[in-house]
TrEMBL record:
Lineage: Bacteria, Pseudomonadati, Pseudomonadota, Betaproteobacteria, Burkholderiales
InterPro entries assigned to the protein according to its UniProt record, in alphabetical order: ATP_synth_asu-like_sf (IPR023366), Lumazine-bd (IPR001783), Lumazine-bd_dom (IPR026017), Riboflavin_synthase-like_b-brl (IPR017938)
GO MF, any single term: riboflavin synthase activity
CDD domains per UniProt: Riboflavin_synthase_like
Enzyme class, first EC level, given as a word: transferase
EC number: 2.5.1.9
Full protein name: Riboflavin synthase
Reaction catalyzed: 2 6,7-dimethyl-8-(1-D-ribityl)lumazine + H(+) = 5-amino-6-(D-ribitylamino)uracil + riboflavin
Keywords, alphabetical: Repeat, Riboflavin biosynthesis, Transferase
């Protein structure tokens, strides 16, 4: 589990194919940036752009993860060398829950409809697929590229659901969200509680 509070921005330094078959995944070597790896053990989880990955090797300032083809197909920002990525170590039982409960399982891809300065902040508008839109609610939580954010508005449309977010300067500065532009794809994870509420309601 994670909180969606990004601890550091790292960079994918190396992408190594794990086979020659089309369905083969890749091994990523990720430069950890300011993420402290001293307490990270092999087998621990680290969220990369919102996707939970398992550490299989590490050094003082970098770590390796294996990414399946399924994960590569369902996410953005994991298979490209040189790309900056949001990083967060797994939540410990005694940690502060600064964002919201995040599983690190990407539910789908959204498309940025707008990313522009508004006063001292930025307005981010994302179009989510219809099957994700039903879980989005005014003042609810959503994870975008691993960042826990609060939904400011929700509008259903023919091609999906558009939601808006206000990004304070600090969030823009310390995450990869600052590099977004109109048309960019982003990893989305819906709120865990909304997922269970939908299941309970449908079971009745």
């Amino acid at each position: 589990m994670f909180t969606g509070i990004v601890a550091a921005v790292g960079r994918i330094e190396k992408v190594t194919p794990l086979g020659s078959e089309p369905e083969a995944g890749v091994r990523l070597t990720v430069a950890a940036g300011g993420l402290d790896l001293a307490d990270v053990e092999l087998g621990d989880s680290i969220a990369i752009q919102g996707a939970c990955m398992t550490v299989i090797q590490k050094s003082a300032d970098a770590f390796d993860v294996d990414v399946s083809r399924e994960s590569l197909n369902k996410t953005v920002g994991l298979g490209d060398k040189g790309v900056e990525v949001n990083l967060e170590k797994a939540l410990r039982a005694h940690d502060r829950l600064g964002g919201h409960l995040v599983s690190g399982h990407v539910d789908g891809l959204g498309v940025v409809a707008k990313f522009e300065p508004v006063g001292e902040s930025h307005e981010l508008r994302v179009v989510a697929p219809k099957d994700i839109g039903k879980y989005l609610a005014y003042k609810g939580s959503v994870t975008v590229n691993g960042v826990s954010l609060t939904v400011n508005s929700v509008s259903d449309r023919a091609d999906g659901c558009e939601f808006s977010i206000n990004l304070i300067p600090h969030t823009v500065e310390v995450t990869t969200l600052k590099a977004l532009s109109k048309g960019a794809k982003v990893n989305l994870e819906i709120d865990l509680i909304a997922r269970y509420v939908e299941r309970m309601m449908s079971a009745q």
